[in-house]
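Methods: holo model generation. Sequences were used as deposited, without trimming of termini or removal of tags, and paired with ligand SMILES retrieved from the corresponding compound records. Each pair was processed once, and we did not select among multiple samples. The sequence and nicotinamide-adenine-dinucleotide SMILES for this entry were:
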Amino acid sequence: MSELSGRTALITGAGQNVGAQTARVLASAGARVIVNDLFADRAETVVEQIRTAGGSAQTAVCDVTDLAAVTETFGQVGDIDILVNNAGIPITGFSMANFADDDPATWKAFIDLNVYGPMNCTHTVLPGMIARGWGRIITISSESARVGDRKLGAYAASKGAGPALMRSVAKEVGRHGITCNSLSLATQNNAGLDEASDMTLRQLKAYQVPRLGSASDVAAAIAWLTSDDGAWVTGQTIPINGGYATS
Ligand SMILES: NC(=O)c1ccc[n+]([C@@H]2O[C@H](COP(=O)([O-])OP(=O)(O)OC[C@H]3O[C@@H](n4cnc5c(N)ncnc54)[C@H](O)[C@@H]3O)[C@@H](O)[C@H]2O)c1
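and the model returned the structure below.
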C-alpha cells in the first residue's frame, strides 16, 4: 500500500510550479489530491496530469484570501488530512523597491495572501483533523522572511506570518496527532532561467549548491513531512535553500 493511501491532501495555489509538483508527488504517494488555485484551467490541467498517471485528484477553485469561499469550497471536498499552504505570490506580482520607496498600495495583496491565506485555510481544516486525530499542515515561506532580502520588504513581512502561525498551532495540536511546519524556500527556477546567464551566475554565488531550486526539491521535503518518517517533526521552519543561508 502506498504511504498516503487513504489520505486526502489539499494544496493551495497548485495550478503551477511548486504547488503543482507537490500535488503530483503526493498523488504518486497514494493521496487523493485536491488542487486549489484561483484559475480553474490551471487546476484542471494538473488534475488531468495526475489522473493520466493513475492518481486521484479533483479541483477546488477558490481565492484563499476569502474565508467564506474557503469554507464553502473546502467543505465540498470531504475530509482534508494534509494541507499545504503554498499560494504565496499575488497575481499582481512583485514591485521590487527599497522599503523607503515602496508604494503602500501594494502591501495589502501580500498580507491578504500570506497572512490571511494560511490562517483561513488552517482554521478551516483544523477541526476535522482534531476530530480524526491526524493531520499534517505545511506552510511555504521564504528565505526573504527568514534571513531578509533587499527590495522585498512587504513580501518578506507577509511571509514571516506562516512560520509564526505554524509554530503556535503546533503547540496546540501535537497531542491530536497533527504536525505543523514551514518550508523556507530560496529562489526557484520556475521560469526555466538560463543558469549560465551573467545575472543568474551572480545570483548563484550565494548558493553552496550552485543552482536555483526546483519544485521537486520542495515536493520531496513535503512528501517526507507528510510520511510516517516525518511524524516527530513539528513547529519547525526548514530551509530548502541550496545553502543560500547556512543557519
Ligand atoms: N518562486 C520562488 O522563487 C519562491 C521563492 C521563495 C518562496 N516561494 C514561495 O513558494 C510558493 C510557491 O511559489 P511558486 O513560485 O510556485 O508560485 P507561482 O506564482 O508560480 O504559483 C502559485 C499559484 O498560486 C495561485 N494563486 C495566487 N493567488 C491565489 C489565491 N489568492 N488563491 C488561490 N490560488 C492563488 C496562482 O494562480 C498560481 O497558479 C509561494 O508561497 C512563494 O511565496 C517561491
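The chain has a mean pLDDT of 97.
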